[in-house]
Design goal:
There is one protein chain. By secondary structure, the protein is of the alpha+beta class. It is about 25% helix and about 40% strand. Strands 2-1-6-5-4-3 form a six-stranded mixed sheet, with helices on both faces.
């Protein structure tokens, strides 16, 4: 859990290295269910590119906070994340939660999937609330 806490430490917005350091170099990062126009990213550079694109769409008020971290199994975490901010150009604001499934091997995330629905995230790992 500590590696995820560090990944979401205050001030990470725009500086992804703390986040990237929690990921295996061969990470499979799937935000397709939550981030528009996104494909599955493989590896650090692809995740950096996805993050730059996503964060670049928001004004300086954009914040990402891990609200809850739940151990579902020894190497699987559910991370409840709150995104809030104002979109550049349109002024549209969001304040939403997403639910991330982090799967670990040797202390690094090897697979990360982002969902907008908690039940869907839990079902993805064979669990239900």
């Amino acid at each position: 859990m500590e590696v995820v806490r560090r990944a979401f430490a205050p001030g990470q917005e725009g500086d992804f290295e703390g986040y990237i350091s929690a990921l295996d170099p061969e990470i499979e990062w799937d935000g397709t269910r939550a981030v528009p126009d996104t494909t599955v990213a493989h590896g650090h550079e692809a995740v950096r590119s996805t993050c730059r694109r996503w964060f670049g769409a928001w004004e300086d008020d954009f914040e990402v906070q891990a609200e809850e971290i739940v151990e579902l199994a020894p190497d699987i975490l559910l991370v409840v994340v709150r995104d809030s901010g104002t979109a550049k150009g349109t002024g549209i604001t969001i304040d939403r939660r997403n639910f991330q499934i982090w799967e670990f091997r040797d202390g690094l995330a090897v697979r990360l999937r982002v969902f907008l629905d908690r039940d869907e995230a839990l079902e993805a790992v064979g669990l239900r609330e």
